[in-house]
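Same chain as my last thread, 198 residues:
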Amino acid sequence: MKTPYPHYDVLAKWASPSFDDTTRAVLTQRLVAIPTRRFFTEAEWTLLEAIVARVLPQADRAEPIPITPWIDDALARGRSEGFRHDNMPTMPVAWRRGLAAIDAEARRLHGKDFIALDDAARDAVLTAIEHDEVDAALWQGLPAQRFFIDILVKTAAGVYYAHPAAWSEIGFGGPASPRGYVRLGADARDAWEAKEER
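reply #2:
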């Protein structure tokens, strides 16, 4: 992926005043304590990995940012954003039903399970769901477009951008605590912030 910060690494600040012990502990967790599967079945996990690989492709990364393990972990722990859309079931039900429906849409549109499709066909399935061009019966009352955009994509992106590798990619310096950010105006940058390379 082309980034305007090709030489920036937020982890270079590890021993600086930018990070405190709490920040370092959280980052260590994200970097090395990747959760194992506890909520999803093996088939659901594999399917979600295939979906996430199309939603947030990471072919250029030697070590892709893990996304599925953290979604699984949140579901296993019963963690959520603290609210639920009025037309959605609980998150565990929504995820199981949504993943099954995506697989069913793949079979409806292409005659194969999602993981058996090539990238173009996978993208076509996800685009159809994004545009709500689905067989509603396959979704068992789950709003397809809402699940895909507001739950699956939003959650996957949230996990992705919580990882230091994504921070480096976008030039984010990490939490404002303990050092803080002082220069907040347009085109203003603190000395320890990433500088865009043009």
